[in-house]
UniProtKB/TrEMBL annotation:
The chain crosses the membrane at residues 12-34, 188-207. It catalyses: ATP + protein L-histidine = ADP + protein N-phospho-L-histidine. It comes from Mesorhizobium escarrei. Pfam families: HAMP, HATPase_c, HisKA. Residues 270-487 form the Histidine kinase domain. PANTHER family: HISTIDINE KINASE, SENSOR HISTIDINE KINASE YKOH. One of its GO terms (molecular function) is protein histidine kinase activity. It is found in: Membrane. Gene3D superfamilies: 1.10.287.130, 6.10.340.10, Histidine kinase-like ATPase, C-terminal domain (3.30.565.10). Residues 209-262 form the HAMP domain. Its EC number is 2.7.13.3. Its main location: membrane. This is histidine kinase. It is an enzyme of class 2 (transferase).
Length: 489
């Protein structure tokens, strides 16, 4: 969706870009002025050092031969190509010799370095200008003979000295070269910074425009999701940038929320359907006890049955609460290093009398040295539920009922498996449904239970970053708890 410029400037990205551009422009201007002034100061310093050396040399000449020798040396040096400015004048400022034809008024009045650059004309520049004007227009040749003194010409700095006989000597240096150098530096920096600014504006326009489009698409998807469509997902372009990483994280969060909402809906439906029967049974038992005449023993038995049925309901609700907490990724239970071999031995020892009473052989194949980061009580509860189911459903085995608990390592996983030789669950779809809440297959309808044992075990394994698999035991069923191996560094 195209955005107008006012709409674009209301976005945080555009405001930050404009602020950065303004700061860049200010820094660029300051950099240009700083570099040009620095280069000018460097060249001016070198010029002053050169003039000082020249003055020292002329002072030695004056000491050796006096004014005549000084005049000859000045005339000689002033005629050399690229010479400095040389001027010798009388006490009144009348120029006697040198390569300077005219000076800006007041230059020779103060002794020492000139406070500011002054204007001057070299000797012969006025005549050369008149000749050029005469060639260009002979009728105006008379006008070209105007006195050029005082007119603006070149700029220079100089050192003015008074000789012992009150004559004035000036040694200076033209500033044309430093000024040209400063102009070149200024143009180069201005051009470079201008190109950088133009590139920044173009990058901001194209990249910022693409970013704004992606933000707009994210906003549209967010509005759909807020409207109740939890199946919607934020767009991912595959570029792998910050937008993609943010979208992927938010999509994972949305998928998690959708899973939790679906689980909540299933729990609500299951509670409405599967808990209605025991509640109805409680009510009917209480109503039957109150109707008619009964002995105190009958009343006591009815109350005991009601308490037992209530305890089972409380256990069911506690299991539902524990599953919800674990699936939400939150548990107040503490975690530590758990020795799986010790946990297996404790559960097997607990269920050996139960298996013996049911006529089931309980075997173990456990290797020591396997430990995981988790909660010992939760792992023990999950294993207890699985072993209890295996004992109950292995009774129908045509062979001698046997339950085998094994602990070993396969690749990068520690696997704790409980295998029985009962009838098992041959159908793949039924094995997938067996871990859902309140799901009880047809063969298990005659067995006591609420259908939450495997669901709780699956939630516990998810809490431990593992998984619960139901595999055919041929015969029977094999329930495998797979824990990831965390390598100690």
């Amino acid at each position: 969706m195209a955005l107008s410029m006012p709409a674009i400037m209301k976005t945080t990205a555009a405001r930050l870009s404009a602020l950065y551009l303004l700061l860049f422009a200010i820094c660029a201007v300051l950099l240009v002025f700083y570099m040009t002034s620095l280069s000018a100061r460097m060249l001016t310093g070198q010029t002053q050092e050169t003039i000082n050396d020249e003055v020292l040399g002329l002072a030695r000449v004056y000491q050796r031969g006096g004014l005549p020798l000084l005049v000859r040396v000045v005339e000689q040096r002033s005629r050399q190509p690229g010479a400095n400015l040389y001027l010798i004048a009388d006490a009144n400022g009348q120029i006697l010799t040198g390569n300077v034809q005219s000076l800006e008024p007041g230059v020779l009045e103060a002794e020492g370095w000139t406070t500011e650059p002054f204007s001057y004309r070299r000797f012969g520049e006025g005549e050369l200008e008149r000749q050029r004007n005469a060639i260009a227009d002979p009728n105006e040749s008379s006008q070209s003979e105007v006195q050029v003194e005082g007119e603006k010409g070149h700029n220079a700095i100089a050192l003015v000295l008074r000789l012992p006989n009150q004559m004035i000597m000036l040694v200076g240096r033209d500033l044309g070269e430093p000024e040209r150098f400063r102009a070149v530096i200024r143009r180069a920096l201005t051009l470079a910074l201008g190109m950088m600014a133009l590139g920044g504006i173009l990058i901001w326009f194209f990249v910022g425009r693409a970013a704004l489009k992606r933000i707009d698409s994210v906003s549209q998807a967010s509005r759909r999701i807020m409207g109740g469509d939890l199946s919607g997902r934020l767009p991912v372009t595959g570029a792998g940038d910050e937008f993609d990483r943010l979208s992927e994280n938010l999509n994972s969060m949305l998928a998690r929320i959708a899973t939790l909402n679906e689980g909540l809906k299933q729990v609500s439906d299951n509670i409405a359907h599967d808990l209605k029967t025991p509640l109805t049974r409680l009510r009917n038992r209480a109503e039957a006890t109150l109707s008619g005449k009964h002995t105190p023993t009958d009343y006591r038995q009815a109350l005991e049955a009601t308490i037992a049925e209530s305890d089972q309901l409380i256990k069911t609700f506690n299991a539902i609460l524990m599953i919800s907490r674990l699936e939400a990724g939150y548990s107040s239970e503490s975690t530590s290093r758990v020795d799986l071999a010790a946990s297996v031995r404790d559960v097997v020892e607990l269920y050996e009398p139960v298996a013996e009473e049911a006529g089931v052989t309980l075997e173990t194949s456990v290797q020591d040295g396997f430990a995981v980061e988790g909660n010992r009580e939760l792992i023990g509860q999950a294993l207890s539920n699985i072993v209890d189911n295996a004992i109950k459903y292995s009774i129908d085995s045509t062979a001698k009922p046997t339950v085998r608990v094994a602990l070993d390592r396969v690749g990068s996983e520690i696997r704790l498996s409980v295998t029985d030789n009962g009838q098992g669950i041959p159908d793949d779809a039924d094995r997938a449904r067996a871990t859902e809440r309140f799901v009880r297959l047809e063969k298990s309808r005659s067995q006591p239970g609420s259908g939450l044992g495997l669901s709780l075990a699956k939630a516990i394994m998810t809490f431990h970053n593992g998984r619960l698999d139901l595999l055919p035991g041929n015969p029977g069923l094999s329930v495998v708890m797979s824990f990831p191996v965390r390598e100690d560094r």
